[in-house]
Amino acid sequence: MSDTKVYLLDGGSLMIDGYHAFWNRGPAGEFRFPCYAVLVEHKDGRYVYDTGFDYDHVMRVLPFEKPSQTREQTIPGALAQIGLKPSDIDYVINSHYHFDHCGGNKHCTTACTICHARELEVAFNCQPFEHLGYSDLTFAPDRARNAGKTLPSEPALDMYTPKFETLTGDQEIAKGLWLYETPGHTAGHYSMMVELKGRRPMLFTGDACYSKKNLDMNCISSFHLDPVASLKSMHRLTELAAKHDAEIFYSHDPESWPTYNRAPGYYA
């Protein structure tokens, strides 16, 4: 690996109501949105930002979100399309620990997980209204048990990233690979920016901003810990994009997603 490359790994899709996607604005009705992981091939290693959802977990706990995911849209399946295995991943970066961003962590058994210190803490001690968001704790079953959380019995339960590196504040974790604090959606949310040799930087919002429509409407999603902080973080993303001349890539945007170059294609 020499010059940095970025792959977008299709992870399938979920469904929510429009009033959740655009809080108190809507319109109402089924809103199907994409989920994806970001693989960064860097000279210092392979980093995956978020790992999507686990289909079996969603069907068991949140079936009303009507998951759609093929074998090729799981982390092992998506990596196989570019000739890699989960064991080739050195680091998993989680923007936050909602179920649709950490469901594939358990496959990356040799990776070190990087996350915000506050996020790792609240994942096992969340507010009551965050319960479903933090329902998939299989990325760290021992921590879940120690927190008194009951986990379903499943063969993959003890497959999880064994090492955690927690951070606070804005951090350049590798040359040209930046994590920016964007709290509000959750207590310890990180967005990510990747600098590339042949194009503008790529700014991945995570769930600090679901879609371009959210940004244009100045409207956050309904799933949040702190709506005021959420709005400030969305504004911060706009400021970061302007400061670094970065292109924004949204986490759950059904209109933008078809325009993205998806794996096995890549950005460099």
Describe the model.
The strands form 2 sheets. This protein has a 6-stranded mixed sheet. The model has no long low-confidence stretch (mean pLDDT 94). Strand 9 (190-194) and strand 10 form a beta hairpin. It has a single domain, classed as Metallo-beta-lactamase, Chain A, CATH 3.60.15. The chain is 22% helix and 24% strand. The protein is of the alpha/beta class. It has 8 helices and 11 strands. The chain has helices spanning 18-21, 55-61, 75-80, 99-102, 117-123, 141-146, 212-217, 227-244; strands at 5-17, 30-42, 45-49, 91-93, 112-116, 163-167, 171-174, 177-181, 190-194, 202-204, 247-249.
Report a brief summary of the structure:
With 268 residues, the protein is an alpha/beta fold.
